[in-house]
Amino acid sequence: MDFNLFMNDVVDAARQDIREAGYEELKTPEEVDQALSRQGTTLVMINSVCGCAGGVARPAAANAIHYDKRPDNLVTVFAGQDREATERAREYFEGYPPSSPSFAFLKDGKIVTMLERHDIEGFSAMDVIGKLQNIFDDHCKEV
């Protein structure tokens, strides 16, 4: 099997997982600026192809939002794939080093907090769901 074809399949499946969960995929810097300047709360899932993204972060992203409180906007960028969009998104995450997979939580376009790779790797999807829902409890309205 050709490695590049295999990786394209892996990336396509990772993209599909997060889109099907209800996240808007941002592929350009312009899309990032438009999405992250929205009023209200925004959860940004920084996607990647690593094992902790597929085994923990994406399942947590998909399931954490089935909760009494949730962000107004759900968006995603793909580290290592949509490089310019990811770099632009990271400009909004002042004070946090690049990390993927990760979750950034913004309010009115300003970073509030992040779950970085070290908050995901080595934890279960249920642990990360709990961490995300704690953020939602503190910053989101009931839906």
Global geometry: globular
Task: Give Rg in angstroms.
Answer: 14 Å
How confident is the prediction overall: mean pLDDT?
A: 95
How much of the sequence lies in strands comes to: 15-25%
Coarse structural class: alpha/beta
Number of helices in the DSSP assignment: 6
The main sheet orders its strands as 1-3-2-4-5
Spans of at least 5 consecutive residues whose pLDDT stays below 50 are none
Helix content: 40-55%
String of helices and strands: HEHEHEHEEHH
Distance between the termini: 46 Å
Report the biggest beta sheet as strand number plus sense, adding barrel if it closes.
5 strands, mixed
Overall strand count: 5
Question: In a few lines, what is going on in this structure?
Answer:
By secondary structure, the chain is of the alpha/beta class. It has helices spanning 3-20, 29-36, 51-64, 83-91, 117-120, 125-139; strands spanning 24-25, 41-47, 73-78, 102-107, 110-115.
Could you characterize what this model shows?
- The structure is a single chain.
- The protein is of the alpha/beta class.
- It is built from 6 helices and 5 strands; from the N terminus they run αβαβαβαββαα.
- α3 (51-64) links the parallel β2 (41-47) and β3.
- The longest helix has 18 residues, at 3-20.
- It starts with a helix and ends with a helix.
- The model has no long low-confidence stretch (mean pLDDT 95).
